[in-house]
Structure formats: structure tokens, C-alpha cells
Design goal:
2 domains; 6-stranded mixed sheet; Amino acid/polyamine transporter I; single chain; alpha/beta; 10 strands; two-stranded antiparallel ribbon
């Protein structure tokens, strides 16, 4: 089951370089703070929700061992086997995430039947991305609420203050995002290390009191539980899935830290601590009975340690939110570069790891959504119903895309790929079935958010395709334009003009309009195209392609990865080094500004045309996105009917 070098696990690409054990330890510590915050705080509510009175499951020996066995094997099969062993092998030159996974298989599919398969894969990837964004909205709300609710265990006096405290913490969390994941990881990593040590230590005394809980590693207890409760047991899986929330962050944040640090952090700290705490909660339930069902996590601690534990849990909950927030930033950049999102502000926060970014628009949207969820749901128990669907939906789409990678990139046979991925899908779909019943009680939220984001992404992609087709139809083939220039010999003025174009084979409309109205051309004209490749980063040696078209015209193609932000002045400096002889500081940049009208004959529905027009008007300006000096830009407007 080996994989080719192009998609094998590696610590190259955009991930930080590891040259020593100290580097590995430092990055693993950072991964604790950014990657494992979400799954690491699941003990706050996972076991509690399994024994929620609404399920009617008594915390006796058989039920407790059955649920612990389900938790143990969920962590083992989903995190260890699926993600750490298989999914993280499918890295796209060191980067991960569901859109990076999609980019691995997209270039391989051509032709009629394959085109339909490619479309299905694209839709799957977009569904997974949309659900992951919805998950990123729920994670901060439920983890922070779950931690602050520990104050109620100590005294009910704090009950009216839980929601206000949670809101203050969430606003503060999003306010520090602009400092970047490297600095945040440096602050959060040590705190999470303390958290994992503490939660593991809390479970040990209770396991020693009730060592029979260790029998739960035997999968027969899970089988007996499911056999006894049948359909009701499947519904309990909707609570068990809470123990693996945040698992997609392992893959989404792979470019931030690398595969080895993420795996090291899991096996050395996270997995042992989670098992000790979950089994400790099970031992507590066996020892104290139903009296501990209300909040078994905080009941693990002696009374004098409840307040310090609440403070530590609150800090861990703040950190837990970081996993999905960082993943949402990476996902947003990938969506922009792959053409599924309008241009956004991409701020690179590290000069050592190019994968570490901050997206202000996404950060603001997540903050508003998280605060709204806290105000609407009030309690973490209410949010638990909304949580599972987004998590499992993303897991299922990852499995389906992984099948395509296994077949096309790893060269697996259909039988082998079907067997391995089929096992993963069986687990995913069972969890998904368990969460379907939660739709009315909160599960509608991630589905609604996912549907909105999916609609925006598909509308933007379709709108850009329709707009490109419209512009291409009204453009002139470049060879015909150059032939016409030779016949008429227009006046040429000193300097360099740069025209941005998405189609290298035609004279762009902005060039035709400029020539039509001004009757002159610069002595050197550069037709610059920027192409996004299906890799996270393009090496500098492969970045630039220059073609002399004659008559002072040059076609320049700049290649960028989907995790890079194009910078036109730097690209032209590289072209200058390649003897093109252009100075970005003195060149004139000509850009088109389209005013979109929804009265055309495009096959898009009218409401989608209106949505695309709105998105286009509010996208980040091309000058800012491409790093073009505003004082060197001339914009020519035109109206286009879609």
C-alpha cells in the first residue's frame, strides 16, 4: 500500500523544515496548540452527551464499557488508521485539506465520461469544504461554552454569567488571529501540553479504583452494546462522534507544521491523555453511578481543584477553536486560487512557513457566526446536536475523494481501493446516519451554512466561466491583431504597458479599447497571464514563461500554486532578470473593470447572475490582490451582459 513520491507523506513543500530533534519537538509542541485543540477538548462534553438523560442509557457496567469501547475504536479507526495512516499520505506537495485533496485528482480526468466524474469530484470537494467552514463556526462556540459551564459544577451562582463570559472570550480569540499561527502556536502549545498532562492524570486514580474499565479496549463490548440497543444504539453514535470532532484539522493544517510533528504530537501526548481521561470518566461513572452523569469530566477532579481546572479548561477551549480557524484560513486561500471564491485579503504571517496565513474577511465572519451561535443556543448541550453533521459530512467526502487518489495517484486496484475506502465509508456513513435525527434540534445549522457556502462557491465558478466566455467571444485573436498592427503601423510611445489577461491567445478587451480610443501603443506591450496550478507552491525556476510575439509584444505566463498569493511586480522583476527588460516601477498597468448586467442570454438563473454580480462588486480589487502599485494603474470600464 505504498504511495508514489508525489503524494507521499513528507516534510517538504511549504511546511517548516526539520533538521534536528529540537525542530521536531518545537513543531510538535506548536501542533498541540493549533491542530489538537479541538479533539483535545472533546472530553469536556463527549461522555456527558453519551449519557444524556434524553438517550435513556443507564451508566451501568455493560453500557459504560460499551460506550468506552465505541469511543476507543472511533479514535483508533478514524484518527489513527484513516487520517494519520492513509489520508495524510495524500499530501499535495506537503499541503493538506479537502481542496488540496481535490486538486490531486482533478488534472488526471479528461474526456467525456471522465469529465462527468471530474464534476462529481468537484462537487464532493465543495460540499466537504462548505461543511468544514460550518464546523469552524460551531467549534469555538461549543468548546468555550463547555469549559465555562464547569463553573456551574462549583456553584450555580455563575450560571447567568456563562454566556457573557463566553462571548468576551470568543471576541478576544478572533482579535489575536492576525498575529499568525506560528506565534499563536508558540503561546498555545505549552498550555495544551499542560492540559493533556492534567486530563490524563485526572483519569489515572479512577482507573486504579475501577480497573475493569480497561476491558473496553475489547471491541466485543461495542458489539454487545450495539446488539442490545439496535437502532437506539445507532443514535448513541451521534454522541460518540463528538470524541473525534476536529479530526479534519489534522489534514487541513498539515501545511502549517508538517506530517511528522502532527503524528509525533498525537502518539506522544494526545492519544494517551485522551484514553486515560475517557476511561477515567468511565471508571467514575461505575464508581459513583448516575450522580456523576451531569458532568463527569469535572467530577474527576477533587473539589478544591475545580476552579483551577475550569481556568485551564477555558484556556484549552480557546485554543481548541484555533484548529478549525487555521483550517478555515487555508481553505479560503485555496478556494480563491482555485477559482471558487472572490478575491480575499491574504496576509502571510510567517517568513519561515508560507502556509501560515490570516484572512481578515473569514476571521470576521467566523466571529459573528460564533457569537450568534452562543446567543442562540445558550448551552453546549444544545450545540452538540448541530456539531456532528458537519464533522461526519466532511469525513465522508474526504473518504470518497481519497478513493480517487488511491486509484489514480497510488495505482491501487479497484478491489483494494474499494475495500479500504469502503471500511472508512462504513464508519463515516454510520456516524452520519446517527446524526440525521439531530437535524430538527440543531443539525439544520451546518446544513444551512454549508448550502449557502456551496451556492456561493459554485455561483462564483460558473459566473467566472460565463464571463470568460463572453470576453473571449468579444476579443480578437492575437495573431490577427498583430497582423493589423503591421499593416497600419500605429504611433508607439516610450515605455512599457502591462495588460492582464486570462486568455493568452487573444488580444484582451482592455487592450482593444485602449488602442481604439487612444490610437497609440507603448513601444513594449506585455500580455500577462496568471495561472493557478494544482500544486500548493510552484518552484521559482518554473514560475515564469516568456514568449516574444513580435512587434514589441510579449506574452508572459506566471504560474502560482493554490496556496500562493500572486504578486505581479515580483513576477515582472523576475522577467527583468530573464532579460525582458521591464521595470515594474515605471510600467503602466492596464486593467479592465467590468460592470455586470443580468439581462443577457447566459444560461445562469437570474438570481445566480445577481449573486455573482454582487460578489464581483465586493471582491478585493485586482490591484491590491496582485500587489500592483495603485499609482501605476489605468482602469478601463466596460458593461457586460450575462
Amino acid at each position: 500500500m505504498s504511495t508514489p513520491d508525489a503524494t507521499s507523506a513528507s516534510d517538504h513543500g511549504d511546511a517548516p523544515t526539520i533538521t534536528s530533534r529540537r525542530d521536531l519537538a518545537r513543531l510538535a509542541l506548536g501542533a498541540l496548540g493549533v491542530v489538537y485543540g479541538d479533539i483535545g477538548t472533546s472530553p469536556l462534553y463527549a461522555i456527558r452527551e453519551c449519557f444524556n438523560p434524553v438517550h435513556g442509557i443507564e451508566s451501568n457496567l455493560a453500557n459504560t464499557l460499551g460506550i468506552l469501547s465505541l469511543v476507543f475504536w472511533a479514535l483508533t479507526l478514524v484518527v489513527v488508521v484513516k487520517y494519520l495512516t492513509f489520508v495524510m499520505r495524500a499530501d499535495n506537495h506537503g499541503d493538506g485539506g479537502i481542496l488540496a485533496l481535490l486538486a490531486l485528482v482533478m488534472p488526471k480526468r479528461n474526456g467525456g465520461r471522465a469529465r462527468r466524474g471530474r464534476l462529481a469530484l468537484i462537487l464532493l470537494g465543495l460540499v466537504g469544504a462548505a461543511l468544514l467552514w460550518a464546523d469552524g463556526m460551531i467549534t469555538p462556540a461549543i468548546t468555550v461554552l463547555g469549559a465555562i459551564e464547569g463553573l456551574e459544577v462549583a456553584t450555580p451562582v455563575f450560571r447567568p454569567f456563562v454566556v457573557p463570559i463566553a462571548l468576551v472570550i470568543l471576541v478576544g480569540l478572533f482579535a489575536v488571529q492576525k498575529r499568525g499561527t506560528a506565534r499563536i502556536g508558540a503561546m498555545f502549545g505549552p498550555v495544551m501540553l499542560v492540559w493533556f498532562v492534567v486530563i490524563g492524570a485526572l483519569g489515572v486514580p479512577w482507573i486504579m479504583r475501577e480497573p475493569q474499565v480497561l476491558e473496553a479496549v475489547n471491541p466485543l463490548w461495542a458489539v454487545r452494546f450495539m446488539s442490545q440497543y439496535h437502532w437506539h444504539g445507532v443514535l448513541i453514535l451521534g454522541a460518540v462522534v463528538l470524541c473525534i470532532t476536529g479530526v479534519e484539522a489534522l489534514y487541513a493544517d498539515m501545511g502549517h507544521f508538517g506530517i511528522r510533528p502532527i503524528r509525533t504530537a498525537w502518539y506522544v501526548a494526545v492519544f494517551p491523555a485522551l484514553l486515560l481521561n475517557y476511561f477515567g470518566q468511565g471508571a467514575l461513572l461505575l464508581h459513583e453511578g448516575p450522580a456523576a452523569d451531569a458532568n463527569p469530566f469535572y467530577r474527576l477532579a477533587p473539589g478544591v481543584l475545580v476552579y483551577p481546572l475550569v481556568l485551564l479548561a477555558t484556556a484549552a477551549a480557546i485554543i481548541a477553536s484555533q484548529a478549525l480557524i487555521s483550517g478555515a484560513f487555508s481553505l479560503a486561500q485555496q478556494a480563491v486560487q482555485l477559482g471558487y471564491s472572490p478575491r480575499l485579503t491574504i496576509v502571510h504571517t510567517s517568513d519561515k512557513a508560507r502556509g501560515q496565513i490570516y484572512v481578515p474577511e473569514v476571521n470576521a465572519g467566523l466571529m459573528v457566526a460564533c457569537c450568534g451561535l452562543v446567543l442562540a443556543f445558550q448551552q453546549s448541550t444544545n450545540l452538540a446536536a448541530a456539531y456532528g453533521i458537519a464533522v461526519v459530512g466532511t469525513m465522508a467526502t474526504t473518504s470518497l475523494l481519497l478513493y480517487a487518489v488511491a486509484r489514480e495517484r497510488w495505482g491501487w486496484s479497484r478491489g483494494l481501493a474499494g475495500l479500504v475506502i469502503g471500511i472508512f465509508l462504513l464508519v463515516d456513513l454510520t456516524f452520519l446516519l446517527a446524526n440525521v435525527t439531530k437535524i430538527r434540534s440543531g443539525g439544520w445549522f451546518p446544513l444551512a451554512v454549508g448550502a449557502i457556502i456551496f451556492t456561493v462557491m459554485t455561483t462564483w465558478k460558473r459566473g467566472r466561466a460565463e464571463l470568460a466566455a463572453k470576453l473571449a467571444a468579444e476579443s480578437l485573436p492575437l495573431d490577427l491583431f498583430l497582423t493589423d498592427l503591421e499593416e497600419h503601423s500605429p504611433h508607439r510611445v516610450y515605455g512599457t504597458a502591462v495588460f492582464m489577461t486570462s486568455n493568452a491567445g487573444v488580444a484582451p478587451m482592455v487592450l482593444l479599447h485602449s488602442y481604439k480610443h487612444n490610437k497609440v501603443l507603448h513601444e513594449k506591450v506585455i500580455l500577462l497571464s496568471v495561472r493557478t496550478e494544482a500544486v500548493p507552491f510552484v518552484p521559482a525556476a518554473q514560475r515564469l514563461e516568456i514568449h516574444d510575439a513580435g512587434s514589441g509584444f510579449y506574452q508572459v505566463l506566471g504560474r502560482f500554486g493554490f496556496m500562493e498569493t500572486p504578486n505581479v511586480p515580483r513576477l515582472l522583476l523576475q522577467a527583468r532578470t530573464a532579460r525582458l527588460g521591464v521595470d515594474p516601477a515605471s510600467a503602466s498597468f492596464f486593467l479592465g473593470r467590468e460592470t455586470l448586467l443580468t439581462t443577457g442570454t447566459s444560461r445562469m438563473w437570474r438570481w445566480r447572475k445577481a449573486l455573482f454580480s454582487f460578489l464581483s462588486r465586493n471582491a478585493r480589487p485586482a490591484t491590491a490582490f496582485f500587489g500592483i502599485p495603485p499609482n501605476r494603474v489605468l482602469e478601463l470600464g466596460t458593461q457586460i451582459e450575462l
